[in-house]
Amino acid sequence: MSVFYERFERHAHGEGVKGRSTHYCAGCGHGLAHKYLAEAIDDLGVQDRTIAISPVGCAVFLYYYFDVGNTQASHGRAPAVAIGHKMANPDSVIVSYQGDGDLAAIGLAEIIQAAQLGVPITVVFVNNAVYGMTGGQLAPTTPLGHATATSPAGRDLSMGAPLKMTEMIAAIDGCVYAERVALFDNKERITAKRAIRKALALQLENRGLSFVEVLSECPTHLKMSPRESQRWVRETMVRIFPLGVKKDVKSGRWPAPPPPNFDSARMVEVIGGFADHVESRDAKLPSELGDEVGLKFAGSGGDGAQTAAMLVTRAAIHEGFDATHIPSYGPESRGGTSYADVRIAVDEVLSPAVTAPNVLVAFNAPSLAKFGPHVLPGGTIIYDSSVITERPQQRDEVNCIGVPCAEIAAGLGKAVVKNIVALGALQAATRVLPEKVFIDVIRLALKSKPKLLPINEEAFRRGAEMVANARTSPS
Amino acid sequence: MAKKSLKAKPLLSPQYCKACGLCVEACAQGCLVMGEAIHPETGLRPVVLDIERCTACGLCISACPEPYALAPLPVEGETEIPAPPPKAALTTPDTRLPLAIEDPLVIRGTYASAIGALLAGCRNFFGYPITPSTEGAELMALLLPKLDGVFVQAVSELATINMMYGCGGAGRRAMTFTSSPGMSLMLEGLSYMIGAEIPGVVVDVMRGGPGLGNIAPEQSDIKLVCRSLGHGNTHGIVLAPSTPQEMLDLTFDAFELSFRYRIPAVVLCDGYLGQMTGRVVLPKTMVRPGVPGWAVTGDREHRRNLMCSIELSERDLEEHNRRLIEKYKRIEKSEQRADLFHCDDAEVILVACNTPARMAKGAVRELRQRGAKVGLFRPLTLWPFPIQALEPVVARARRIVVVEASDGQLEDELRLALSHAGMRLPARIESLRHYGGVLPQLHEIVDVVLPDALSAGASRGRA
Hints:
The structure holds two protein chains of two kinds. By secondary structure, chain A is of the alpha/beta class. Chain A has two domains: 12-248, Thiamin diphosphate (ThDP)-binding fold, Pyr/PP domains (Rossmann fold, 3-Layer(aba) Sandwich); 272-472, Pyruvate-ferredoxin oxidoreductase, PFOR, domain III (Pyruvate-ferredoxin Oxidoreductase, domain 3, 3-Layer(aba) Sandwich). Chain A is built from 16 helices and 15 strands. Chain A has helices at residues 29-44, 62-65, 78-88, 100-106, 108-117, 165-170, 186-203, 219-222, 226-240, 264-271, 305-318, 365-371, 405-411, 418-430, 435-445, 453-472, and strands spanning 50-54, 69-72, 93-99, 122-127, 130-131, 137-138, 175-182, 209-215, 244-248, 292-300, 322-329, 337-345, 359-362, 380-384, 399-403. Chain A has a seven-stranded mixed beta sheet, with helices on both faces. In chain A, strands 11-12-10-13-14-15 form a six-stranded mixed beta sheet, with helices on both faces. In chain A, α4 packs across α5 (108-117) and α14 (418-430) packs across α16 (453-472). Chain A is elongated and about 105 Å long. The relative contact order of chain A is 0.07. Chain B is α/β, with parallel strands linked by helices. Chain B has a seven-stranded mixed beta sheet with strand order 8-7-9-10-12-11-19, sandwiched between helices. In chain B, α6 (180-196) links the parallel β9 and β10 (200-206). The chains are: A alpha/beta, B alpha/beta. β2 of chain A pairs parallel with β15 (306-307) of chain B.
């Protein structure tokens, strides 16, 4: 049997009889499940493709015995570890081996997801109705009436009824094969051996998860002889957990991941889209703003405050400045508040938060009321006068300009460009960045939607016009 | 891989027999009976085999739970010569490939981190959505398929970290994005990764706690990732970026360090930094990772490898701990990183990381303009804490002001590092702290530092 190590070097350093015998108690079902698994691996010729995931519980030392790639998982997580391995090496053959406490209690979420994803791994689920290694406590699969260390008077309905995992897993689309087998006589052992082999063979077809539940004897915690525990499995367990094939479908096809790509030309293609061309000239902010300028965009979700802020940030970086943009949203997915802070600095942005902005763009009245008073002396407020109908209280040192952004946008037939109208006004009113760079980044942003470009450019122009008109016309 | 016929007579090795008797019941011919004699090596009473009546049905072998107690009797002339064990796999090295993107990217912190991971050779992402980290995962979901990579949305953070355990154990560069509550859930898996020496990168975009808290920035996972990365004697490398640029650079470095030392690395940032868009310049090269010799890949070469953190024998586990602790010491010695800003002549040292460090840098600039000798000490590695760079700075300073969005978690790291280094604490360690999503602001830092900084500077000037 070449799939078992010649000598179990990992079992007490392979010394004495331990070098060739398992750590399992006499009559334990794990030994047989191991043997049939080893035979199946050997039979199918997949020893040099197999990775076995050892669970927590009595089978934690599965890796002592199997001469395959081995990974030992934490309690309940073997299917997640198995998925990690399968994704790394889709051609490998992965066996996720678990007991009942492991799979049916702490690891429920992981086994259900593995079945749902339909990842072709082979699950060997050894159900002996008790926590073995931990010392004989109640398992999700313990029969009603059965006494354990944590159900000393026997399991009653307050502890729930036993969980039938094979039926549950069979009900999930990503599972292609599910069978429950037993070990208590020659006939059942032959069936068990065949089922484990089939579950492994199915993995080679790359269709989905295959699952074998093995009703298994734990003479130690049943406090019975091996023979008596065989009878107990036959008479008590089988009544609760009916044997047989629960699912065997021909459907399913797992989209195995291709080998990962490390071509640098491909990488340039994939991330190059985020790159923005930068003007190499020495950029300077308008002298009244100094080395740093803070802008705040505020409105409701959907007003386009974030997009406007992002465009300004990109424009500033295009110009050769350092710039940052920080969004802040209310908890709502749609609507709610939406604020954005933009900081532009000649050398390095040191304080990205803008509590006292040089420029405020407000799309609604609450935003204007909230942030208007914090605008720095010499600063500018641009507000959407089609939404904020009441003209705000004028502060001498702040230039407050109403622009009917929503109205202009509606007139252009595209309500969402009101933020671009505001940007046009912002540029005209502050000259914080040249007009050309705004148009450049708008073009970049609409690279994949060129049809929208004219209307956006028009929106920007109209916003700027409003400011120019406000300057020339007496008010 | 010789096929073994089931129709073989059994060979009994009584020293491996546990006397369960399953073979006795399996044999229709009555060849096997429960033994009476105690075996000297095992103290058990192995079964006794009378091969005379054996029909070579093989049922006894199939009923024996032990691999070597009842095995097929080797037939003369068909003796299988066992294949020699596979040779240990060699590590195939990583390759650096030139990357030609000159223009900077304008991207948010989480995106920068994701792109840093891609450039470092990460093609496997596992994650569970959690605000404010999710945008990093979303970008991975978009980009990985274009690089023939794998994105898996796991059922929880527990599943996530264990998928990383499997994938990292296969020698692959795997990562996740998470935020504080998710970090709590991953601690168990991280302990297993540390124990099994499996690399992997977790980007923790810290949010307000405790409990569900909120989704605004905090720095209150510092204790978790520096002092309690799961149960046991654990450590992982903890990197603390402050800008979108560093989100990329330090995520890239996190993979390099994680694989160099076979230890998980955490890129610890805050919600503010994760969402902050800024200018990011790309490195000149990207990585095509090799396959480490230690990986469990499922092929013959790597067949003898094992990913495992259990050591049943106390002495073995102590030895394993010793090796891990030696590794931690090597990392502590070699991988400390800090950024020092105006620390050379500073009388007051600000200590800050992540976004608060940006505010602190602004405060230093303002305070310097006002004549105060203030500097910023910014740890880039929180574990190991960069004490080597701090020592000379602290020796000169009168005051240390720790600026942080947590209840002294960064200060505790600082104090611990000073204490372990056997350094006398400077006269004063002060703090400016905020919680719950509120970040220390530039003017607050100035207000805390300024009064004493100026008077002391002035009086010293007069002396």
